[in-house]
Amino acid sequence: MALALVLNSGSSSIKFQLVNPENHATDEPFASGLVEQIGEPIGRIVLKVEGEKHVLEAPIPDHSAGLKLAFDLMDQHNCGPSQVDIVAVGHRVVHGGILFSAPELITDEIVEMIRDLIPLAPLHNPANIDGIEVARKILPDVPHVAVFDTGFFHSLPPAAALYAINSEVAAEYGVRRYGFHGTSHEYVSQRTAEILEKPAIDLNIITCHLGNGASMAAVEGGRAVDTSMGMTPLAGLVMGTRTGDIDPGVVFHLARNAGMSIDEIDNLMNKKSGVKGLSGVNDFRELRQMIDEGDQDAWSAYNVYIHQLRRYLGSYMIALGRVDVIVFTAGVGENAQFVREDALAGLEMYGIKVDPERNALPNEGPRLISTDDSKIKVYVIPTNEELAIARYAVKFAKA
Ligand code: ADP
């Protein structure tokens, strides 16, 4: 079986999967794992294969050591590079700036281009480059492919991409909307066209990727024309721990009056805000339980979340003019039926009617949740970014 190795390298972790590109989105990967606490005194590697979990604890000084130890652990459990047929490696790269609109076969030159984009993603792109360099050394004979989180949004028209900030400053520092989660928005919008058996060019779709990070996109005829995340993944919807849109004046206020440094404000807005900042939890199962038990903060956090989602929904309906399909995906979008119900409640006059029974179906694959007479169809389509990256990667193996 030809497999793709998919790597998602963070600043102190590496997520990896061995994926059969022929899988469905809800299939388990052949193997998956996580290297974490890189750089700390004791690191940890978890490998899941054939329903079993294997854990290794050891010092992991850097990404190179982490990936080598992960390969050793895979070898011990018969899924190492010498035992399975890895035909390509797909690397998730967070920021492609305005340079990359599509996945690229990685060469030394491409690595340098990704390096040039570090100022736009100072935490993510260096880790992505580490992962690429180490993996190219360990697996030198297969194609390595960079798949950019921003790529699908390269097509944003200037009206959606530009911020109303001084244009010289914007040009010098790359200040504009790039958008993220592109692999997921592209994947579910393409799946929608396949399911409806219509060419993508004939469909206008609003995609809602609601996971711990969350974003929405307006997709017109297969092309992204707007999205809620911005120059960074902090903008847009309320998220698990991120603020989403907030008055930029708040940053100045906190810096001037709370004595907070820029790094402290960054940490506050990315890690201690969003649903968690308002309620104390960021998992929607816990949030739901707290609401059911009468917790007022949980209720208020939920309402802020839904209100913001509906704001974006309204603006994308106007931006697109005609909407054929609304798609929900990712952890919350696929599983939290109450979020879908509340996000679309009372919109019958706009042609949106959710069927409560269809909306309550378990998350076992793509499904229609609107009524037969709903003018706009509403679907839940499970996403799988690793599978999408694996498919891009193996295309280069075949070429
Ligand atoms: P990430 O952005 O980390 O990839 P996911 O797309 O995996 O996130 O989504 C994770 C989130 O999905 C969890 O934090 C939780 O809020 C939500 N979630 C997962 N399963 C359920 C469920 N059964 N019901 C409600 N929410 C769920």
UniProtKB/TrEMBL annotation:
GO biological process: one example: acetyl-CoA biosynthetic process
Positions annotated as active site in the UniProt record: D149
Name recorded for this polypeptide: Acetate kinase
Gene3D superfamilies in alphabetical order: 3.30.420.40
Organism domain of life: Bacteria
Cofactor: Mg(2+); Mn(2+)
Gene that encodes the chain: ackA
Record function comment: Catalyzes the formation of acetyl phosphate from acetate and ATP. Can also catalyze the reverse reaction.
Similarity field: Belongs to the acetokinase family.
